[in-house]
Specification:
The chain contains two helices and five strands; from the N terminus they run ββαβββα. The protein is of the alpha+beta class and about 80 residues long. The chain starts with a strand and ends with a helix.
């Protein structure tokens, strides 16, 4: 089952194959506002900004979650290359 970013039941992102993919993209987009570790560093709590949620969803009929992942990774690599200039 694919996952996507939602706000108030509205799907805001493309569908991706795993929840971890959406978390990574949310962090890269600056939507993760709180990373809390316990005193023992045994637990990490990630929190999304505002009312954002990551939920399981159906992909759109013409959408391929695996291709969305590849496209996002290529875009990230391109952004890194361009920022290094």
């Amino acid at each position: 089952m694919p996952y996507a970013l939602f706000c108030d039941e509205a799907k805001l992102s493309k569908a991706y194959p795993t929840e971890a993919d959406v978390w990574r993209l949310a962090r890269e987009s600056g939507l993760v506002v709180d990373v809390t570790t316990s005193a023992r560093r045994s637990a990490v709590h990630l929190r999304l900004d505002n009312d954002y949620e990551i939920k399981a969803c159906a992909a759109e009929p013409e959408e391929d979650p695996w291709q969305n992942r590849v496209d996002a990774e290529l875009q990230l690599q391109l952004d890194v290359l361009l920022s290094a200039r």
